[in-house]
Specification:
The chain has helices at 4-17, 29-36, 55-61, 73-86, 123-133, 159-165; strands spanning 44-48, 65-70, 91-94, 106-112, 134-145, 171-173, 179-182, 188-196. With 198 residues, it is α/β, with parallel strands linked by helices. Strands 1, 2, 3, 4, 5, 6, 7 and 8 form an eight-stranded mixed sheet that branches. Bound molecules: S-adenosylmethionine.
Length: 198
């Protein structure tokens, strides 16, 4: 599955150089919409590749049992600072998501700018990880980055490619128009909900 140390060094360097154009100043509107529409309720939720994202805090404030994982020490430190500042409880673990085994399964996973950050050669492994982390019937709330440069990150996550990755035999795609969300890096994301089949 490649080299964890190399991946960690690459992402840590981006944080050190301030190359973090993906960072939002507040919670992703898709996440808020899903909660307002009653599609996402307080539950045990995982945020892979959480970075320093505000969504860890937003979900914890709304009663979710949140676990974030990230490889980069600066991301972990930043996430813990946000949690402490907000005075909420959430767990943040430093791990390589490609070989992290969840001690217990999750009700939901929130993927924001994580899949598009992974080398396409590791996507199949990531899909298997998502499937194994979720309970049967658990849901993946995904923001698929509509990037076009194959040299990413962010790597393109067009819907045709996503349907090939998250196959109907393993994932039920919610029958609704994806949410279209502008991204701070000038791109846009498509918000989709997928249910892990039994
Ligand atoms: C583009 S950033 C997005 C961060 C966050 N989700 C956000 O929206 O602000 C991608 C994050 O994934 C993390 N990451 C990349 N590969 C990883 C891996 N194999 N295991 C764990 N984290 C990883 C990086 O350290 C980085 O924080």
């Amino acid at each position: 599955m490649g080299d964890t140390a190399t991946r960690q060094a690459e992402w840590e360097t981006r944080y050190h150089k301030g190359q973090t154009a993906w960072q939002r100043e507040s919670a992703n509107p898709a996440l808020l919409t899903w909660m307002e529409q009653g599609l996402l309720h307080p539950c045990r939720i995982l945020i892979p590749g959480c970075g320093r994202c505000h969504e860890v805090v937003t979900l914890a404030q709304r009663g979710f049992d949140v676990t974030g994982i990230d490889l980069a020490p600066s991301a972990i430190q930043g996430a813990r600072q946000l949690i402490e500042k907000a005075g909420v409880t959430a767990q943040v673990i430093q791990a390589d998501l490609l070989d992290w085994d969840a001690p217990d399964r999750f009700d939901a996973v929130y993927d924001q700018t994580c899949l598009c950050a992974l080398a396409p050669s590791t996507r199949q492994d990531y899909e298997r990880q998502l499937f194994s982390w979720l309970k049967p019937g658990g849901q993946l709330f995904a923001l698929f980055m509509q990037a076009t440069n194959p040299e990413g990150p962010p790597f393109p996550c067009d819907l045709d490619t996503m349907h090939q990755l998250f196959q109907d035999s393993r994932w039920e795609w919610r029958d609704a128009e994806p949410l279209s969300i502008p991204h701070p890096a000038g791109l846009h994301e498509l918000g989709c909900i997928l249910t892990r089949r039994a």
